[in-house]
Amino acid sequence: MSETTYALRAVGRVESPITDPALAPCQGDEGAPPAWLALNADMAAAMTGLEEGSEVIVLTWLDRASRDVVQVHPRGDESRPLQGVFSTRSPDRPNPIGLHTVLITSIEGTRIAVRNLEAIDGTPVLDIKPVLGAVSQR
Amino acid sequence: MSETTYALRAVGRVESPITDPALAPCQGDEGAPPAWLALNADMAAAMTGLEEGSEVIVLTWLDRASRDVVQVHPRGDESRPLQGVFSTRSPDRPNPIGLHTVLITSIEGTRIAVRNLEAIDGTPVLDIKPVLGAVSQR
Predict the structure, then answer these.
(1) ipTM of the assembly?
(2) Which B residues in the span 45-84 are in contact with A, Cβ-Cβ below 8 Å?
């Protein structure tokens, strides 16, 4: 079995009032406070075309997650049976990439203010992608 | 600026008749042929709860992408103005993670047959996540 690895690098960091993983909502539409994507200065050109008022997908690196976990109780509810991590959104998984659909509320230089981001303060940002499909076609 | 990197590892590979990047559709619902997610044997426990007939999100590592590109012509159409990669689905981007919404048509051991996957044969698979939201709530 190949042990090849691929190196991710942060393109920025999350700035959020959420500092305690235990207090983070499971999903961004479950009460996440406004937050910032503070991108690195060299990402300015990659940001052209991003617009206030649009929804985007943000990928993050959930650096506090456990990568050895393969089964969890969904939403941490021990009354629910163990389930493979690939059928849950648990942060604990072999490659802990967070997937968040957020609303851009303003853009100031390489700082992007967003709603509905449940990630913890300091979380590395990996990528931003447009939402595709019927809801928000681009 | 931090140069910290994070190491991804493949949990499997795509098996697809698509072998030429130039012939791959831009999006999976634009004529992608049936494909397989051939997961590593040690991922069996992580798969429990995945079901035939359900839609899932697949994350891949687009290993043929260029990571230095920050602006592109959307969909490779040079009549369209250059746009920052964060507002496009170009595979070329700082962290070339592919995001695919696919339909599971069958599961055989750690092999998952899917529709609507536009990735090239051999592409490393990083993660599988349930679709959330109104379309396919879990």
Answers:
(1) 0.91
(2) 45-51, 56-57, 59, 61, 63, 70-71, 82-84
